[in-house]
Amino acid sequence: MEIVILIIAIAVIAVGAASGLVISGRRKKALPPPRETPTVTAPPAEPSVGEESVPAAEEDVRRTIEEVELPGGEAPVVEETGVPVPPSPVVEVPAPTAGRLVRLRTRLARSQNVLGKGLLGLLSRDHLDEDTWDEVEGTLLTADLGVAPTQELVARLRERVKVLGTRTPDELRTLLREELLALVDPGMDREVHTEPGVSADGAEVPGVVLVVGVNGTGKTTTTGKLARVLVADGRSVVLGAADTFRAAAADQLQTWGERVGARTVRGPEGGDPASVAFDAVKEGIEEGADVVLVDTAGRLHTKTGLMDELGKVKRVVEKHGPVDEVLLVLDATTGQNGLVQARVFAEVVDITGLVLTKLDGTAKGGIVVAVQRELGVPVKLVGLGEGPDDLAPFEPEAFVDALIGD
């Protein structure tokens, strides 16, 4: 009997356990399936120094700018870490300045030959009457030589031709070359002075050049090209973007500087030009640069305003040391209008030298003589094209030879 009761108890326990399992299974089935958490694929992080690059997902390959293959080869890699690094900007080596005007003489002669050929043609006539001499005078005036220089040259030519008598083409060319060269005045000091100076406390400061002129004459471009001239001569240069009133001027100058490895100091748009000029010279002192070139504002609004701006820039820069050069940039194609601009700037600041741009684009080569006579300062540089190395030191002999097509 006890055995029967034991068997019945065991059976009851077994049935109960089985029922619990079924209920538990049903409860589990009744529960909703767990909510799946969406997988978010983050973009590959930029590798840090000492870390390996994180591979991107195959379906969405993204590369950093450092990993993009550059023209001419792969991006440079730091050997220790394997991390791609951006390439350094390519620094150009400017063409040497020695003989640069001679190399560009063909370009100059192309535009200036009109003057030389015209004069030689007139002087070669069998009979030089008053009408012919009037034509000679008109040719010179048309070339923007100026009234006084024209009268001097005509008087000298008349005298020498009369003494010469018979005139061969070679004799006329020699005569004309000598007289034109005398007008251009080869004895003037045409060197761009950039000697280091000394500050009030005895410290050495770089040579300082202020570049002035009306906007539109190629002033900022000339500053950049002058940096190339100086670098080609082995000088280290700092550029000061003090033309803060033109939004693109500082960017333009900085681009020129980067091409030759020259640092550009700039300020906020519309900021104080004198402050930028001061900081540029300060930077030049700290870097031990040879020359600081300062591109100034060129707003010819009123003479008083211009005087205030340029005067302040010069005074502030001179707190560091002397200003070696003040170069006035003129557009040679503007002719007599350029002379008007020159007079205004000469009254405002002491001009030490002239830069004539676009001289290859005009047949009015007489502007060289006219502006030198007007200001009493020499033409030191000439622009003969749009290329980066088309700014050349002015050489009177090469210029006159281009005029007469020698």
UniProtKB/TrEMBL annotation:
Segment Disordered: which positions? Answer: 28-57
What positions does the entry give for GTP binding? 213-220, 295-299, 357-360
Q: A single Pfam family, by name? A: SRP54
Is this entry keyworded NADP? no
Q: Taxonomically, which superkingdom? A: Bacteria
Record field: catalytic activity: GTP + H2O = GDP + phosphate + H(+)
Q: Which GO terms describe its cellular component?
A: cytoplasm; plasma membrane
Q: Which InterPro entries match?
A: AAA+_ATPase, P-loop_NTPase, Signal_recog_particl_SRP54_hlx, SR_rcpt_FtsY, SRP/SRP_N, SRP54_GTPase_dom, SRP54_N_sf
MF (Gene Ontology): GTP binding; GTPase activity; signal recognition particle binding
User: Per the database record, which ranges form the SRP54-type proteins GTP-binding domain?
Assistant: 378-391
Membrane topology, as annotated: Peripheral membrane protein
Q: Which UniProt keywords apply?
A: Cell membrane, Cytoplasm, GTP-binding, Hydrolase, Membrane, Nucleotide-binding, Receptor
Keyword Hydrolase in the entry? The reply is yes
| BP-aspect Gene Ontology terms | SRP-dependent cotranslational protein targeting to membrane
EC number(s) recorded for this UniProt protein: 3.6.5.4
Instruction: Provide the primary localization.
Output: membrane
- Where is this protein found? Cell membrane; Cytoplasm
Q: Which SUPFAM superfamilies match?
A: Domain of the SRP/SRP receptor G-proteins, P-loop containing nucleoside triphosphate hydrolases
User: What NCBIfam families would the database entry show?
Assistant: ftsY
Quaternary state and interactors: Part of the signal recognition particle protein translocation system, which is composed of SRP and FtsY.
**Family statement:** Belongs to the GTP-binding SRP family. FtsY subfamily.
What function does this protein fulfil?
A: Involved in targeting and insertion of nascent membrane proteins into the cytoplasmic membrane. Acts as a receptor for the complex formed by the signal recognition particle (SRP) and the ribosome-nascent chain (RNC).
| Protein name in the entry | Signal recognition particle receptor FtsY
Name the species this protein comes from.
Answer: Streptomyces smaragdinus
Q: Which gene encodes it?
A: ftsY
